[in-house]
């Protein structure tokens, strides 16, 4: 080896160590409340590294540079892009993570090294690289799922399973229990997320989620105070919940629901070029990854996505600290959305029993949930692992100090009713509350726990939630599903028109209806409440979601204009016999 080659590799290693230190600082910072300068420093360090390996790669290869080392650098850049996406909700950053991960995967940066044979030292090194590869594929899977790349997700999931099996066979004395659990979580997640293949994106799509006929009705609210959704806090904490890595199914759905669907196409290319511009073979340890992102991805006609703090299994003190930090930075025309999906039971082992109930001449079965009798209180949410104790209890009173700022609160829990205490107890700004039913609903014999929280499902994917509730488990005919989507579009258009022209609409709702994300959540709440109202043969308050302040009677389940679209939808899907549209026992709400 020439001195220049050794010197180049030493310089590379020194830069790697410096970049890794900056990466660690950026990684350890919370994804809210500033800290962007650490991320920028880390990006700058890895950009310098990337440029060095491009400009002097022949010297570096001769000096001992290995493919997995380039893969590690590219993986770190992908992680920084993903962290920036979580911090800013910027689509371009998510695409950047996907581009780098796809390039690493397609070139097999980790694969060759992990499969190397040799003595005990080299085998140990190969095992460490294999762990890097497993973690990389898990990260790539999360990004691919958020990008809705179904084919890539299926392929990566298969590769991850195969890789775990290969590694277990190659290293029989190594414990892979953790990765076995990861595969189980992945299987449950993909089964729930892909239950209805024909479904469209959860993101806000102007083509499907906006209704030009109602623009004039919405515009009238602009004459008064209008609040915009700019900040959100999303968290869930349930035992045995559907999740993959640190992304739970509930927050995964809500995260997408609060983003715009990009109108442009993703133009991505990973090209490995030599100095004269020709495409090189990819047998060398490195190459150039070019990112070509369509300018349409940042469509000027679309506002920025609301920033989101996605918190995985927080303690109560951590959650409150996050809320305090974000509220301090909330602008005067902004509203903060707080979404919490959590159990109200400290052991969360509700037992579901089904009881048959007669409706006219037809016998139908409906679920009656009985919660664990040892629970001592139903006035809080439980944010904690197994065990008991006050520090893990989140009470409505804990959130009241934050009502000095405008809040839109979504609580998905069997103890959601406890948070009614916030209404009329606010410290400055009246809060808008959407509270889940105390008891989830399902057809008898239909497994529902693996689909995530039902209320969240309705708020983020109402068509799929309706199918799951009605027991439609098999693949639906494409035309039938498309007709159902059109009926749902018409239903929401009508609901929006009625709501925006209702007399006596509380100003708490009026000042947030112009915001498209919040308006869509409210319309889906109306849909959810109506569907559940007619699903049960008798009026059970515990089976229905609640909103505070109350919405006008014109959008109540008993209103004919609200009921009729649900009937048409049920008839289209041939499940009208599973509802009670003509049951005289329903009282007007």
Automatic annotation (TrEMBL):
Any coiled-coil regions, as ranges: none
Pfam families per UniProt? SCAI
Q: GO molecular function: any one?
A: transcription corepressor activity
Source superkingdom: Eukaryota
Q: Would you tell me the protein name for this molecule?
A: Protein SCAI
Please give the InterPro entries that the UniProt record associates with this protein: SCAI (IPR022709), SCAI_metazoan/Viridiplantae (IPR016607)
The Gene Ontology biological process annotation of the record reads: DNA-templated transcription
């Amino acid at each position: 080896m020439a001195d220049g080659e050794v010197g180049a590799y030493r310089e590379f290693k020194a830069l790697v160590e410096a970049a890794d230190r900056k990466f660690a600082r950026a990684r350890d910072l919370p994804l809210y409340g500033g800290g962007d300068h650490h991320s920028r420093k880390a990006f700058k360090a890895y950009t310098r590294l990337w440029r060095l390996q491009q400009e002097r790669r022949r010297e570096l290869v001769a000096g001992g540079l290995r493919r997995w080392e380039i893969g590690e650098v590219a993986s770190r850049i992908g992680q920084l892009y993903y962290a920036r996406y979580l911090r800013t909700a910027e689509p371009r950053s998510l695409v950047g993570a996907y581009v780098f991960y796809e390039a690493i995967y397609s070139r097999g940066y980790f694969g060759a090294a992990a499969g190397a044979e040799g003595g005990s030292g080299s085998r140990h090194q190969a095992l460490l690289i294999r762990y890097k590869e497993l973690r990389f594929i898990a990260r790539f899977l999360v990004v691919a799922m958020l990008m809705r790349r179904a084919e890539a997700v299926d392929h990566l999931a298969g590769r991850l399973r195969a890789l775990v099996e290969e590694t277990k066979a190659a290293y029989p004395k190594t414990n892979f229990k953790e990765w076995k659990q990861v595969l189980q979580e992945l299987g449950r997640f993909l089964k729930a997320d892909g239950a209805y293949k024909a479904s469209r994106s959860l993101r806000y799509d102007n083509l499907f989620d906006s209704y030009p006929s109602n623009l004039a009705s919405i515009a009238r609210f602009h004459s008064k105070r209008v609040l915009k959704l700019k900040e959100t806090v999303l968290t869930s904490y349930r035992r045995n919940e559907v999740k993959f890595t640190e992304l739970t199914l509930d927050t995964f759905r809500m995260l997408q629901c609060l983003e715009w669907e990009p109108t442009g196409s993703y133009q991505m290319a990973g090209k490995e070029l030599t100095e004269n511009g020709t495409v090189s073979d990819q047998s060398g340890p490195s190459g150039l990854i070019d990112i070509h992102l369509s300018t349409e991805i940042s469509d000027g006609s679309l506002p920025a996505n609301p920033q989101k703090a996605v918190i995985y299994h927080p303690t109560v003190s951590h959650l409150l600290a996050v809320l305090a930090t974000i509220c301090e930075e909330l602008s005067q025309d902004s509203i903060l959305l707080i979404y919490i999906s959590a159990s109200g039971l400290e052991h969360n082992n509700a037992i579901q029993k089904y009881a048959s109930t007669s409706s006219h001449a037809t016998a139908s079965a409906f679920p009656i949930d009985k919660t664990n009798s040892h629970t001592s209180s139903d006035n809080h949410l439980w944010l904690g692992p197994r065990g008991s104790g006050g520090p893990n209890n989140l009470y409505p009173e804990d959130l009241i100090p934050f009502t000095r700022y405008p809040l839109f609160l979504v609580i998905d829990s069997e103890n959601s009713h406890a948070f009614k205490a916030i209404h009329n107890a606010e410290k400055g700004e009246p809060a808008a509350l959407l509270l889940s039913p105390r008891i989830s609903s399902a057809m008898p014999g239909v497994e529902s726990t693996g689909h995530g929280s039902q209320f969240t499902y309705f708020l983020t994917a109402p068509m799929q939630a309706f199918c799951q509730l009605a027991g439609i488990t098999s693949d639906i005919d494409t035309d039938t599903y498309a007709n159902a989507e059109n009926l749902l579009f018409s239903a929401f258009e009508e609901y929006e028109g009625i709501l925006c022209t209702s007399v006596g609409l509380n100003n708490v709702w009026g000042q947030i209806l112009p915001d498209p994300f919040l308006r869509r959540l409210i319309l889906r709440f109306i849909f959810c409440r109506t569907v559940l109202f007619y699903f049960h043969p008798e009026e059970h308050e515990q089976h229905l979601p609640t909103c505070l302040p109350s919405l006008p009677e014109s959008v109540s389940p008993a209103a004919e204009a609200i009921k009729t679209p649900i009937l048409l939808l049920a008839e289209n899907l041939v499940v009208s016999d599973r509802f009670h549209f003509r049951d005289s026992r329903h009282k007007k709400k």
